[in-house]
Amino acid sequence: MSLKTSYRFIAPFYDVFLDRATRSARQQSLAKLPQQGVARVLLSGAGTGLDFPFLPPRHEYTALELTSAMLARAKKKAAGLRLQWVRGDSMALPFASDSFDYVVLHLIMAVVPRPQYCLAETARVLKPGGHILLFDKFLRRGEQAWVRRGLTPLMGQLATRLDVVFEDVLEAVPGLRVLADEPALANGWFRLIELHKDTSKN
């Protein structure tokens, strides 16, 4: 089953399972968006719009989501925000390079089949000096986690991968630097990570 198909079925129940559980972490992550000026912000994998209540209304947002079912629910939460809606794939972003000041990746890198493509595309569309705000579940290097790894072939088809090692993904995408890495939920399985794109022209 493709992710597009599975999330069409998941969409009506998504908020019930994730809203309350992830609200505090989302708020903490999005507090790092600028409180002054106007930034161009991409919400890559915007889902049903659970981030929207915590977005400063001053910025210009682009909400990208793979499925129309998720986008339809997100649009109901968008009051007061300057938002452009785009159906698209986080692993092949339909935007020019160096387009955004911030990119938000909340619960998407562990969903896509190739997280390194997702991060590489994010880095491409991010302006030099820009920031990536990540909230997701990641294994750490050397962590055995046999159950999570064993369940990944099934869960990866239905909803999300359980075996993504963030450090391995980051290593495959040059030009990004970790500014912050904090535990969020489930004893640190979920992490809040802030990345910065190098301004050099290497």
Describe the protein in words.
It is a single chain. This protein is an alpha/beta fold. It has one domain: Vaccinia Virus protein VP39 (Rossmann fold, 3-Layer(aba) Sandwich), CATH 3.40.50.150. Helices cover 33% and strands 27% of the residues. The protein has five helices and seven strands, in the order H-E-E-H-E-E-H-E-H-H-E-E. Helix 1 runs parallel beside helix 2. About 5% of the residues have low confidence.
Task: Please supply descriptive tags for the structure shown above.
202 residues; alpha/beta; Rossmann fold; 7-stranded mixed sheet
> How many discrete domains?
1
Low-pLDDT segments: 149-158
Widest beta sheet: strand line-up: 3-2-1-4-5-7-6
Q: Name the CATH homologous superfamily.
A: Vaccinia Virus protein VP39
In N-to-C order, the SSE pattern is HEEHEEHEHHEE
As for the CATH topology, it is Rossmann fold
- Rg result: 16 Å
For the termini, the CA-CA separation is 40 Å
Summarize the helices and strands and which ones pair or pack.
Elements: H1 3-30, E1 40-44, E2 60-65, H2 68-75, E3 82-87, E4 100-106, H3 115-125, E5 126-137, H4 146-158, H5 166-171, E6 176-185, E7 190-197
Helix pairs in contact: 1-2
Short précis:
The protein is of the alpha/beta class. The chain has helices at 3-30, 68-75, 115-125, 146-158, 166-171, and strands spanning 40-44, 60-65, 82-87, 100-106, 126-137, 176-185, 190-197. The termini are far apart.
